[in-house]
Amino acid sequence: MTVAQLYIYPVKSCRGISILAGNVVERGFQHDRRFMIVDEDNVFLTQRIHPRMALIHTAIECGSLVLSVNNAFSISVPLSPKTQSLFPATIWHNTVPATLVSCEADRLLNEFLGIRCRLVYMPDESRRPVPPEFQHSGEVVSFADGFPFLLISQESLNDLNNRLSNPLSINRFRPNIVVKGVQPYAEDEWKTIEIGAVRFRSAKLCDRCSITTVDQETGNRSEEPLRTLATFRNRGGKVMFGQNLIHENMGRINIGDEITILE
Questions:
Q1: Which element (helix H / strand E) includes 194?
Q2: DSSP secondary-structure letter at 108?
Q3: Phi and psi (nearest 5°) for 222?
Q4: Rounded CA gap, 258 and 42, in Å?
Q5: CB 15, CB 55: distance < 8 Å
């Protein structure tokens, strides 16, 4: 059992980045979902309502975050913007301090999405806890939906694709860690694992939303894979695919690292 792929998503609900190795820091992978797009009321935006967000490309170059659309228009902002005046930004049931990033980035996003919105950043002093029922010692998370990591096995995706007319890429499910060398859905049963020197504990299976129905290359929406997943992965009215994880220490993990199941 080894790590097959690793991903970060610098801006929540925008295009992710495939990486060869990731530094596990306090909130999850370094640079993962520290940025977010909010509306006029400072409430987070996602592909659930705005599927065109899938077409906003992200890259990390020379210490900057690069946002681009239509493979033509791009803008760079600092990966760690200097803290300005903080204001409350809302994501799900949490309202946390955030800071504005760039008027130029805001203009780019406004024009592309066709709505008034702003790019915000979670500074280090902003503390967003993981859901309290899963906390052990005050763990915090970035602008991810609820947990620092999402793990899926390649074999689980292969099993799903065998049931679909048109196979899907793993990017539909926006994982951080993709593993291989296991039985399909083996990750459902893992309680505690180690990858390299980093220990993770499972929080809960990931109940999937409509973002999985958005083609990450075109921004178009369909009924799959939720329609098929609902026929065999329904748990209490929710469709499950992947395992949410919380890390217990920091470190570095690489593609090719072995996975040890501790519990």
A1: strand 192-195
A2: H
A3: -140, -170
A4: 41
A5: yes
C-alpha–C-alpha distance, residues 32 and 143, integer Å: 8
Instruction: Give the pLDDT band of residue 109 (cuts 50, 70, 90).
Output: very high
- Please state whether beta strands 149-153 and 177-180 pair in parallel, antiparallel, or not at all (unpaired): parallel
Distance CA 1, CA 49 (A): 37
Cβ-proximal residues to 225 (8 Å cutoff; 6+ apart), any chain: 160, 164, 168, 172, 212, 213, 241
* 178/15 Cα distance (integer angstroms): 17
- For position 78, what pLDDT does the model report? 95
What's the pLDDT tens digit per position in 48-104?
A: 999 999 999 999 999 999 999 987 789 999 999 987 789 999 999 999 999 999 999
Q: What's residue 42's pLDDT?
A: 97
Is-contact 37 45, C-beta < 8 A? yes
- Return d(Cα 237, Cα 25) in angstroms, integer: 34
Q: How far is CA 180 from the centre of its chain?
A: 19
| Nearest of 43, 107, 50 to residue 75 by alpha carbon | 107
Cβ within 8 Å of residue 133, ≥6 positions away: none
Q: Element (H or E) spanning 160, and its range?
A: helix 154-162
Q: Torsions phi, psi of 213, nearest 5?
A: -90, 0
